[in-house]
Amino acid sequence: MAIGRDTNIKFIKGVGPAKAAMLAKLGIFTLGDLLEHYPRRYEDRSQLKPIRALADGELQTFQAIVGAVTDSRPRRGLTLTKLTVRDATGTAQMVWFNQPYVKKWFRPGMELIISGKVERRYGQVQVSHPEVEVVDGADLLHTGRIVPVYPASESVGQRWLRTLIRQALDAEGDRPEFLPPEVLAQHKLMGSRAALENIHFPADAAALEAARRRLVFEELYLLQCGLLYLKSLNRQEGAGIKHGPDDALVKKVEAALPFALTKDQRTALAEIKADMEDARPMQRLVQGDVGSGKTVLAAIALAKTAADGYQGAMMAPTEILAEQHCHTLAQLLAPHGVRIAALTGSLTKRTREEVLNRLRDGLVDVVVGTHALIQEDVIFRHLGLVVTDEQHRFGVRQRALLQAKGPTPDVLVMTATPIPRTMALTVYGDLDVSVIRELPPGRKPVKTYAVGGDMRARVYNFIVKEVAAGRQGYVVCPLVEESDKLEVQAATQLYEQLKGTYFRDISCALVHGRMKATEKEAAMRAFYGGEVKVLVATTVIEVGVNVPNATVMAVEGADRFGLAQLHQLRGRIGRGEHQSYCILLSDNQSPETRERLAIMAQVQDGFVLAEKDLELRGPGQFFGTRQHGMPDLKIADIVKDTGVLLEARQAAQRTVAAPGLFAAVRPVLGKRFGDHFGMIFQG
Ligand code: ADP
Ligand code: MG
C-alpha cells in the first residue's frame, strides 16, 4: 500500500489499532496529522559538556561510555538499577528506580548521549531517570540536540512520539511547496520541506526560528488569500444590486427618529448608503461598542432596500435578540408601511409555513430571525440586503449561507465586540469596516465595582433599593463552561435562593438557554414591560437586550468571564438617563483576579478592553470557547505573530490581485480552510 498524508495512522509501522486510538485522543488520525503535530516547546540538549564540568542541579547533556550495569533490591518492592559511565574527565552514575528492564539496553563500551538533571553527591555525579540515547551513527532524536517536546499523554510518551514522527518524516518527507517562488524570495522564507524537518528536529536555533516563521507565514498567508479572494468575488464590479438614492420612505424613517444621529453614526450610515448605491455588492462590517446605536443604522438600511422593492433579512444569534430587533424595527419601520415578520426556531409549524409563504411571495419586506433564516426551505422573492448582528457568533460560512439566498445581496455585518485590529484581519479579512466609537450623548459611564463575596448582602440590598426607586436590574449567574446543564442548575439554584431571601418582595424572573422559547419570551416580555423588576439570567442576555430602565447589574463568579464578555454584559445597563452600577462579585480574591476585574472598574472603552483581553487570555479564549467564527490555526498565534500577519496579508493582497499567482495557491485553500469558508474553495 502506498503511504501518503491521508493514510490512516493505524497502518503506519509500529502503530496498530490500540496506539491509533491513543493518538486519536491527541487529534492525530492520519499521517498528515502526525506531521502537523507540532512541538509544544523545545529543550536545548545540544550543548555537550565534559563530566567534570557538569553543573549541579541543572539539566545537562553529556557524552560518555558505558561501564558497569548493576541491579539491586535494597528493600522489598524496590529495584535499583545503576549504570556507571565515563568520559576522559570523570565518571558518573545513572540511577533508575523500579525499571529493571533498562538494564538490558546497555553493554559495556557503548557510547551514549545522556540528558538529565545533575546532582553531585559526595563528589559523585548522579542523574536519576536520565534521557539516554545510543550513538550509533543514526540521527540523534532525544539528546545531543534541540529536542522537540510534543503535546503528549500518559499513554503516548515523548520518546515514542519522537521516533514515530521521525519515521513519518522519512516515509513522507516530501512536503510540496505551496508558496509561489516570488513570495518565498520576497519574504525570505525557508522551503516547505526544510521547514517541516526543522520544526520537528531543528538543526540549530536559527533553523528553528526560520522554520517556525515559514510555517506561521504560510498559515496566515493562505488564510488571507482565502479571505481576500472571497472579498474580491463578493465585490465584483456590476455583479450586485444598485440601490437608488434615498426615496421618500427612507427620508420619512429618518425624520421620525426620536434622536439625532451621532457623528460616527452619520459617517457609518453614509458609507453604508454609498455601498448600497454602488453596483458592487456591499460587504461592510460596522464595529461599534455596546450601546453605540448600530440597530438604527440597520433599520435605515433595511428601509432603503424595502423602498427599492427588495427584501431585507436580519439575523441575530439568539431568540431574545431576534425578538428584540423585531420589536425595534416594528417601531421604526412599520408606521411607514414596511411589512415585518419574525422567523425563529420557536414558531409553530403553521405560523412558520405562513411566514415562509409570504416571504416567497414577496409579501414580507423585512424578516428578522435566528439561524432559522439559513435553513434550506427559506426562500426569498428578491433578497436585497442581509444584516447579521453580533457577527462574532457566526462564522464566515453562516454568513455566506444567508447571502446565498439572493443572487448578490448587499451584506451588512454588525458587531458590538470590538476586536483588535490584528484579529479583525483574520476574522473579518473579507470585509470593509466602519467604526462607531462615540456613544450617544448624555450617557453616563456605568460605575463599576469589583468586590469579594463578603459584600454579597450589601450588593443585593442595593439592588432592592434601586428597585424601590423604580429601576430594574440584572443578576448574571456564573459561567459553567463545561456543561449547559450544570449552568442551568446553578442558575436555578441562585434564583430560588434570591427569591427566598433578598428578593422576597420583588417580582423577579429567571432566563437561561434551556428554557422553552415561549417561557423565555414571556419572562423577557415581562421584564421589558416593567412587571418583572429583576432578571436572573445566564449569558443569554449577553447581547443586545435593551431595557433603558435597568440600572444595576450584579455578576456572580465574575472571575470566570473574559473582559470582553463582561463588557458585553455591562452594556445591558447604562442605556437610559439614570446612573447605572455594575458590581462584579467574585469569591476568588487572588491578586491576578483582583487586578483583572479592577481593569473593568477603570476602563469603559470596549476597544481597550478587547486588546487587554486578547493579551491576557490569548486568541483561543478570546470570544469564550463556545462559539466563534475563527478558523483553527495550527501554529500561528495572532497576538505574538502580528508582524508576520501583516506581512502575510500584504503578500496575499498581491497574490489575489494576480490571477496567475492565485491559481497556483487556490487548490491548497479548500484543503486547509474548507470548513471555514464553506464550499467556495472545494473542487
Ligand atoms: P447597539 O449598538 O449596542 O446595538 P442599540 O442600537 O441597541 O445599540 O442602541 C442603544 C440605545 O441607544 C437604543 O435605545 C437606541 O434607541 C439609542 N440610540 C441609538 N442612537 C442614538 C442617538 N444618536 N442618540 C440617542 N440615542 C440613541
Ligand atoms: Mg445591537
From TrEMBL:
Q: Which SMART domains match?
A: DEXDc, HELICc
Signal sequence, renumbered to the chain: none
Sequence ranges assigned to domain Helicase C-terminal in this UniProt record: 458-615
Q: Which UniProt keywords apply?
A: ATP-binding, DNA damage, DNA recombination, DNA repair, DNA-binding, Helicase, Hydrolase, Isomerase, Nucleotide-binding
Q: Tell me the GO molecular function terms.
A: DNA helicase activity; hydrolase activity
Reply yes or no: does the keyword DNA repair apply: yes
Which residues belong to any copy of the Helicase ATP-binding domain? 275-436
Q: What class of enzyme is it?
A: isomerase
- PROSITE patterns in alphabetical order: HELICASE_ATP_BIND_1, HELICASE_CTER
* Pfam family, any one: RecG_wedge
Give the catalysed reaction(s), semicolon-separated: ATP + H2O = ADP + phosphate + H(+); Couples ATP hydrolysis with the unwinding of duplex DNA by translocating in the 3'-5' direction
EC numbers listed for it are: 5.6.2.4
Q: Among its keywords, does the record have Isomerase?
A: yes
Give the function comment from the record: Plays a critical role in recombination and DNA repair. Helps process Holliday junction intermediates to mature products by catalyzing branch migration. Has replication fork regression activity, unwinds stalled or blocked replication forks to make a HJ that can be resolved. Has a DNA unwinding activity characteristic of a DNA helicase with 3'-5' polarity.
Family in the record = Belongs to the helicase family. RecG subfamily.
Name this polypeptide is given:
ATP-dependent DNA helicase RecG
Origin species:
Anaeroselena agilis
Taxonomy-wise, where does this protein's organism fall, top ranks first? Bacteria, Bacillati, Bacillota, Negativicutes, Acetonemataceae
The gene that this protein is the product of is recG
